[in-house]
Amino acid sequence: MKLNTLLISLGLFLTLSSSLSASTEGQRLFDEKCSTCHIKTKPTDFSTLIAPPAMGVVRHVKMNYDNKKDAVQFITEYTLNPQRDKAVCTPNTIDRFGLMPSQKDNVTEEELKKIAAWMYDNINLNRKSCNSKCNTNCNAKKAKKNTNTKNNTKASPFLITTRGMPHLTKMVKQNWDNKELRLTQEQKEKLLIVRKATMGAVMDLKPKVLKLEKKIKMLTMQGETPQNLYPMVEKLSKLKADATKVHIDCIHNTKNILTSAQIKILLQR
Ligand code: HEC
């Protein structure tokens, strides 16, 4: 009996310490081979980035692959052979940074598996620097805070910015792995399509709206004649109407994918 207990604890100890060393190994390899491009902390100056920060990468990977095995496999394959149509990040990211150069000569498949497993477990989606103790709990808090601060209403491309038009796709994303919500694989696949379409359209319209708003403000204050400004206002209203239609479509399509119980859970959060 005693021997049994001893053997079990020894086994447990060995398993624990070997998985622990695999994880520190993953971290060491990441620092050595990936962190020159993918920073591990929250960026303070976006203009100096040369690749998406690690937490952004992991967030997108997790949105597309909901279990560790598939995520590790994806990261491993993509890093050796990056391809635009396989990428999980937004097309904007690739436009901005260019495709990742293949890391074939920099890292082996074995090493990548360790790196990817470490990233999956330890790169925290909380925006501050990564810390393995801060788990999903933090993410939930952060997600809640994000919806509360309403910082997106300030620079909104939409016509309706008052309460009651929720950013459903964002809320879904923030609750992607929420146990209570229980999104099925099929729902996730459909939701990703809606999200991609919505984000693509909004990302296209938003900079145009903001630029035109700025221009109208500036010209107004500089004394431009109203007659010359009206067409710009018309154009602005058209852009905002388009964005609002995207918003409405997104709510409609997202609601169609979710059950009414799931919608209720989301809106309560
Ligand atoms: C020379 C800079 C550079 C290095 C080094 C680098 N990456 Fe990247 N990586 C990028 C850029 C740029 C992107 C964004 C474009 C893209 O997705 O291809 C990216 C994107 C990614 C993505 C997201 C792919 C997607 O679907 O959009 C993963 C995963 C990734 N890198 C993993 C790694 C890992 C793991 C390492 C270390 C072994 C690494 N990268 C090293 C530049 C780099």
The whole-angstrom Rg is: 23 Å
Number of domains: 2
Report the strand count: 0
- Catalogue the unreliable spans: 127-153
Mean of residue pLDDT values: 84
Q: How many angstroms does the end-to-end distance come to?
A: 50 Å
- Structural class of the secondary structure composition? mainly alpha
* Overall morphology: globular
Description:
Helices cover 67% and strands 0% of the residues. It has 269 residues and is mostly helical. The protein has two domains: 109 residues, Orthogonal Bundle (Cytochrome Bc1 Complex, Chain D, domain 2); 130 residues, no CATH class. The longest helix has 37 residues. It is globular, with a radius of gyration of 23 Å. The protein binds heme C. The site of heme C (HEC) has 26 residues, from helix 2, helix 3 and helix 4.
Topology:
Layout: H1 2-33, H2 54-64, H3 68-80, H4 91-97, H5 109-122, H6 136-149, H7 151-154, H8 168-174, H9 185-221, H10 226-257, H11 260-268
